[in-house]
Amino acid sequence: MATRKQTQAAKRNVKKAQRAATKKRTIAHLPTTTRRALQTEARKGARRGGQAGHALEERNRQQLYDVARKKGISDRSKMGKSELIASIRRAG
């Protein structure tokens, strides 16, 4: 059984780790090339009015994830966009 002091210290450590993880996930901390690629993809989606494109490359990761789920592809949650496209094409 942990003491009260140990429990409080553990809670502080967890909160500190959560804050650090949140800071690292911001777009500002991504490389410039990655930010530009994200902006380009966002502009494509805006031009389509938010609708999914016909080509797999025109879809965002969430839309590809939904296609992969419908096709029954396993481990899709661990895949990035390019991996999802490749596995969808393999699945036919």
How many extended strands? 0
Residue fraction in strands: under 5%
By secondary-structure content and strand pairing, the structural class works out as mainly alpha
Number of helices: 4
List the uncertain runs.
Answer: none
Question: How would you describe what is shown here?
Answer:
It is a single chain. The chain has four helices and no strands. By secondary structure, it is mostly helical. Helix 3 (61-71) runs parallel beside helix 4. The radius of gyration is 19 Å and the shape is elongated.
Secondary structure elements and pairings:
Blueprint: H1 4-24, H2 32-47, H3 61-71, H4 81-91
Helix pairs in contact: 3-4
Protein traits:
single chain, 92 residues, mainly alpha, 64% helix, elongated
Short recap of the structure:
This protein is an all-alpha fold.
